[in-house]
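Lab channel / #folding
Pinned by the channel admin:
"Please post every new chain as: sequence first, then the structure tokens as a reply. Keep commentary short and put observations after the output so the thread stays searchable."

First post following the new format, from NK:
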Amino acid sequence: MQFLKRCCKVFTAVAILAACGGQTEQRSVDLTVPVTVQAVRLDTMEATVAATGTLRSSREARLQTEVEGILQYVARGVGGRPTEGMRVTRNQEIARLVNKELVVNARLESRDLARKAARRTLREQEVLVERKLGTEKDLDEARRAVADAESNYEDALVQIAKTTIRTPIAGFLTGLADITEGTMVEARTTIATVMDYNQVLVDLRVPNAYIATVSTGQVLRVENYALPNRRFLGTVKVVDPAIDPATRTFRVVGAVKNPGLMLRPGMFVKAEIVTESHEDAVAIPRRFVLTRQNRKVVFVEAEGRAQMRDVKLGLEGPEQVEILEGLEPGERLITSNYETLRPRTRVRVTGEGVSGQ
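Reply from TO:
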């Protein structure tokens, strides 16, 4: 009976030891941390400055009457008159002014006749001088008469041209005045505005901390909330050296290409100015850079273990950061469960990708 009791105790002890051994083995398996990795690659790294602003047309011109007269439209749209948004070419005739008094005073026809007569007289004097039958004095007087007649005729043309309203630039009509055809209008009356926005300008307000880094010629990218996934490229044209004391910002003006005329004057946009760019840089998502004891570090996987690397940072963007030292292309950057890793921790790779994507 005692022998059986001793056997039971032995079997119990063995079972307990076996269970403990199983738990120890299980704990050793649990020490291997599952991670995902991304192969480090070279990429273009940029430092950017974010700002917001408003678009405006690159050029505008007012169509204004120079003389008074009865308005007659030449360009026709809906309703038999020019319309908002109508596309116009440079030097296109939009309207005319009927001003009989001006036409009479210009005496275009009589001045044209005088010009032609002066030309005939000049030719006759040239023939006489060539045949030794005329004098140089008479020839000079004929030349002066032609010059005066031509000047008078050109003046008449200028006066008549004032009755025609033409577009000085190509673009789109906007701000059309509500003037009925046949109405007598005074001089200096604005009929419409021509707006050219094949290229648009953007007025930005940039925090004064970036006054030393933003300069003309830098690349500019613009986005509008109404045009998702569309970026428009431009260039910084003006950097105002003065800081606004009320907002602590300075003004930057950029010129932006507008293919398809999708950007419109008055749009509110967000922009980024590329202040510096490095090609073939080691760049990784900045969230994978940790701070340990005031050191910047990342974790890489090598031979089944996590290696902690001290890194030196370069350019920093909103999402990416440049690594100047401590990381090489092709190394396997740990991208999950990295926050709690310690050097030499055993890891098991469960997935792979490419950094920077």
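NK: The domain at 49-56+197-278 is CATH 2.40.30.170 (Elongation Factor Tu (Ef-tu); domain 3).
TO: also worth noting, The chain is about 25% helix and 40% strand.
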